[in-house]
Amino acid sequence: MFDLDELRAILPGRRWFGPATRTIDSFELFDYVTLTEGAHTLALCLVKVAAEGGEPELFHLPLARRPDGTFGDITESPNALAPLAAACMAHRRIEGERGAFFFRGRAWPENAASHARPLGLEQSNTSVIFDDAVILKLFRRVAVGHNPDVEVSRWFAESNFEGAPKYVADVSYDSDTLGHVDVAVAHHFAVGARDAWNELVQKLSTWVETATADSGGAGTPGLDAFVDSLALLTAELHDILGRNTDDPDFAPEPLHADRVNALAVDVREHLRVTTTEYGIAAPSIEAWLQSLDASDTPAWGDAIRVHGDYHLGQLLVTGEGLRVVDFEGEPSRSLAERRSKHSPLKDVAGMMRSLSYAVGFALRQTTDPTNTLRA
Question: For residues 221-247, b (16+ Cβ closer than 10 Å) or e, as one string?
């Protein structure tokens, strides 16, 4: 059914695969299914790819059938995703050659599968919007195990959390030889939502331009309200993720000193890699790590599931308030690391750093070099 050379040719140059010059050593079509709805035929393929002497990696290739019967990447014809929407609404299980794809849906809006369009430029995943009602994220480089973006979305749906886009559906693959792999997740699409980074930078820039020595840089109502909303959202987020439950994947765990020491080891390793790569020193951070090693505090609260990559770029400003998105965690981390539990202060620290960047960016944008806030 598929020309493997054509499938292989899809990979080079894709952001989710790596540089266009990345050499492919081996390419295997591990499993696939096809779905048809009306004039559209969609294929979901899992491929194993080894490149430049590395270990094989697993990729998800959603394909659309062209009029000539060949298949191309779904970005060529996103409307071919209509069969996926129908399968989620019907809660279908479709068998492949080595396993099965499972389509689960909670509340896919009616008449929200007739027109699909890609969301901007391709990133580490591919996002498609259906009729300005649903946004579908197609995971491209996938891993065996539960993707936190899917499991946290389902947890929010069960907890009635209002601070994130509502879960709509997900697609996964299971086989005895490979295990569980999540390949897609869908949420309600917030029409007219704005990026929180740009929103805050604009407010900060206005504040910087209008602030005077007499005002002392006093806050503005819009800026104060934004920060208040962010603080409330962050507290509600961690309250939901930290609730007591019998589910071992979400149950809080005591953050004893051994966990803190393990954190120090992890941070020290990342610090070593960073300082070596960029040729910089960070004595203040090293002193802080030594203080963690020497700590005799019996417990530091609870370790819970966290966002893991919490910054202003992960927030949307909607007509209903701030909404947090993208719970995959840091892309450079392994799936096990991204699903692990941490102090909620990990997210707080990430957001504080993001806020600091926003302030610095706004200060650099001011057109008045004499503004006292630039000092």
Answer: eeeeebeebbeebbeebbebbbeeeee
